[in-house]
């Protein structure tokens, strides 16, 4: 039993390590090219490695391919909208499309996590980056290259396990079954309820952030998506608070990193470590994982388009609180509705 626990821990370390390498290598290659303003495309393409985890390789082949393809499609959409400097109404329509596609595809293909958080992150950041027309294809190529590298890294264990499997059978036992295809997910009422909650919450939070004049209102949108549970999961106030706290503390952790004005090498290391931490924790405690997901996204944004750090952090704290409160209100409304349904049944 002890050997199995140690093997499982080693496997989790392997999963998190490949996610960190998938992020670090493309970003490091951009440094000598002098193209750090392309960091977002590399980082979000590399998030392909956050999917697949410890699934058997036949299953992982499907989930990682689907996740990577969807991420690249969303990056392409965001790039097009940034290129044409799309008005707010078009960006909003794109956001709704990303939320719907993210939740539907995740639940149909069995992606984990089943929330659209990474897809919304990628869309929200890239759609607002100034994009010169002559760099469109180069920026997209960076995202594609990062996603392909992440895909290869995620699938590389297949060859390693074929070589070492006879001596270390535990390596195969830790590849858990799961990620079942659900073609009927598009007809699942819970999936569409989750989509409606995410869309309403995202639009409400974004509108409030705009009305209050807070810079970059997309962060409030991302906070809503981070706090709301996936389809079919319990709408728990405690879990909502865990996610709120994880997101807010993540902003604080980002402050510790960015306020010191670290060199580029340190920022890339922080992104890799955050990718590692997110992958270690996301299957155990989503709220704790957000402690790493938040500085991961913020550091990528800072690396891509540096702005005064105090302004960045103040905006993010305000937007995080705003988005989290909107999500919490939705959770409380869902709970109240559930209680109203239970009471008549109890009386009968």
Secondary structure: helix percent: over 70%
Taking all Cα atoms into account, the compactness measure Rg is 20 Å
Alpha-beta classification: mainly alpha
H/E topology pattern: HHHHHHHHHHHHHH
Shape: globular
Share of residues in strands: under 5%
What is the distance, rounded to the nearest whole angstrom, between the alpha carbons of the first and last residues? 50 Å
Strand segment tally: 0
Write the layout of secondary structure elements.
Elements: H1 2-33, H2 39-46, H3 57-83, H4 88-109, H5 117-127, H6 136-155, H7 157-164, H8 170-173, H9 189-212, H10 218-227, H11 237-258, H12 264-281, H13 286-304, H14 309-347
Helix pairs in contact: 1-2, 1-6, 1-12, 2-6, 3-4, 3-5, 3-6, 4-5, 4-9, 5-10, 9-10, 9-14, 10-14, 11-13, 11-14, 12-13
What do you see in this structure?
By secondary structure, the protein is mostly helical. Helices cover 76% and strands 0% of the residues. The protein has helices at residues 2-33, 39-46, 57-83, 88-109, 117-127, 136-155, 157-164, 170-173, 189-212, 218-227, 237-258, 264-281, 286-304, 309-347. It is a multi-pass membrane protein. Residues 205-330 form the Integral membrane bound transporter domain. It comes from Cryobacterium glaciale.
């Amino acid at each position: 039993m002890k050997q199995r626990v140690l093997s499982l821990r080693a496997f989790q370390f392997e999963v998190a390590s490949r996610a960190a390498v998938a992020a670090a290598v493309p970003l490091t290659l951009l440094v000598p090219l002098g193209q750090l303003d392309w960091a977002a495309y590399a980082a979000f393409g590399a998030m392909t490695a956050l999917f697949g985890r410890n699934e058997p390789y036949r299953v992982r082949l499907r989930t990682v391919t689907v996740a990577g393809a969807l991420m690249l499609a969303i990056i392409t959409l965001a790039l097009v909208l940034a290129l044409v400097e799309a008005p707010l109404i078009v960006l909003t329509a794109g956001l709704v499309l990303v939320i719907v596609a993210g939740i539907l595809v995740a639940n149909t293909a069995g992606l984990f996590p089943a929330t659209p958080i990474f897809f919304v992150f990628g869309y929200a950041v890239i759609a607002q980056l100034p994009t010169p027309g002559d760099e469109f294809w180069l920026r997209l190529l960076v995202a594609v290259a990062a996603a392909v590298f992440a895909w290869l890294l995620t699938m590389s264990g297949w060859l390693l396990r074929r070589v070492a499997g006879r001596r270390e059978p535990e390596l195969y036992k830790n590849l858990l079954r799961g990620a079942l295809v659900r073609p009927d997910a598009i007809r699942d009422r819970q999936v569409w309820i989750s989509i409606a909650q995410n869309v309403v919450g995202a639009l409400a939070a974004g509108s409030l952030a705009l009305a209050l004049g807070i810079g970059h209102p997309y962060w409030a949108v991302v906070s809503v998506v981070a706090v709301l549970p996936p389809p079919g999961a319990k709408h728990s106030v405690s879990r909502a608070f865990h996610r709120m706290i994880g997101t807010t503390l993540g902003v604080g952790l980002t402050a510790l990193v960015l306020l010191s004005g670290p060199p580029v090498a340190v920022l890339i290391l922080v992104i890799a470590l955050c990718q590692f931490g997110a992958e270690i924790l996301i299957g155990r405690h989503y709220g704790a994982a957000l402690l790493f997901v938040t500085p991961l996204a913020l550091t990528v944004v800072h690396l891509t388009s540096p702005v005064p750090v105090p302004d960045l952090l103040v905006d993010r704290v305000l937007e995080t609180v705003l988005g989290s409160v909107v999500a919490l209100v939705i959770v409380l409304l869902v709970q109240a509705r559930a209680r109203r349904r239970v009471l008549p049944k109890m009386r009968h």
